[in-house]
Amino acid sequence: MTTQPTLCETVSALRAALKGRGRIGFVPTMGNLHEGHIQLMTQARQLGDCVVASVFVNRLQFAPHEDFDRYPRTLARDCELMAAAGVDLVFCPTEQELYPEPQTCLVDPGPLGGVLEGEFRPGFFRGVATVVSKLFHIVEPDVAVFGKKDYQQLQVIRHMVRQLGMRVSIVAGETARAEDGLALSSRNGYLSVSERQEAPRLYATLQTLAKELQNRTQEVSRLEAAAQAELAAAGWRPDYVRVRRQIDLLEPTSASRELVILAAAHLGKTRLIDNLELCRPVD
């Protein structure tokens, strides 16, 4: 019989439950879980004696026009999934518990948080860095697992941990995909039937761009523009398709080998993001 995880709604309850638990693995989420989240939790299970998952929809990372109020809250279903993944403790605080007073002390992610997603969602990574920093101080994990699907977020968290001297180790989990290539996301549920059929085009576009990058016959900027044009021609509204260095998300030079293509585009009312890592051969 699967053991249900213990729910902790307060910081004091979580800290009490964590005493004597050994090595702690942590997976922060906003809930409405899918198989990608479960894979991260299974990965955390292999890295620690106790697995903690948080479920908290963080207002700080949503702009006023975004979907904070309609973001799905599915805690009962989420707990069933987390039980099957071997999660021991679920931290599910209210806003009042996590932010008992206005959160005026904020974590600025620096220039890394102002490009790509940060350009189109100003303040997003400040909200992410602030809540993750706060969760790290509350949970005090030995290791935390973040998915590569949110590639820039992963790099922002790594940068924050490194610069602030946090003791937690950050581990990356591979992007979970549907059979047709679409990256799993809680927001995929917003797609209509016809939009869901179209959605795999985003990853397919990145795959095509990756192949073109290998032969080095065209300038990167032209390839990026062509990829955006392809999406636009199919009815998408792309925010960006960019090629960057994996290590720091800066623009690549001719000597750059470890690259990542990052994209964000609107399909109907839904905004999807995706990325694809690649390694260019040495000349």
Which descriptors apply to this entry?
six-stranded parallel β-sheet; three-stranded antiparallel β-sheet; 36% helix; 20% strand
Chain-wise SSE layout:
Layout (H helix, E strand, L loop, with lengths): L5 E3 L2 H8 L5 E6 L5 H11 L4 E6 L19 H10 L4 E3 L3 H4 L18 H4 L3 H16 L3 E5 L3 H14 L4 E5 L19 H6 L2 H15 L4 H14 L3 E9 L12 E10 L2 E10 L4
Parallel strand pairs: 1-4, 2-3, 2-5, 3-4, 5-6
Antiparallel strand pairs: 7-8, 8-9
Helix pairs in contact: 6-7, 9-10
Task: List low-pLDDT spans.
Answer: none
| Helical coverage, percent range | 25-40%
The proportion of strand residues reads: 15-25%
Structural class: alpha/beta
Radius of gyration: 19 Å
The largest sheet is:
6 strands, parallel
N-to-C CA distance: 56 Å
Q: Which geometry do the CA atoms define?
A: globular
Number of strands: 9
Q: If helices are DSSP runs of H or I spanning 4 or more residues, what is the number of helices?
A: 10
**Residue-averaged pLDDT, rounded?**
95
Major sheet: arrangement of strands:
1-4-3-2-5-6
Order of helices and strands: EHEHEHEHHHEHEHHHEEE
Report on the structure:
α6 (124-139) packs across α7 (151-164) and α9 (201-215) runs antiparallel to α10. The chain has a 6-stranded parallel β-sheet, sandwiched between helices. Strands 7-8-9 form a 3-stranded antiparallel β-sheet, covered by helices on one side. The chain is built from 10 helices and 9 strands. By secondary structure, it is of the alpha/beta class. The protein has helices at 11-18, 35-45, 75-84, 95-98, 117-120, 124-139, 151-164, 193-198, 201-215, 220-233, and strands spanning 6-8, 24-29, 50-55, 89-91, 143-147, 169-173, 237-245, 258-267, 270-279. Helices cover 36% and strands 20% of the residues.
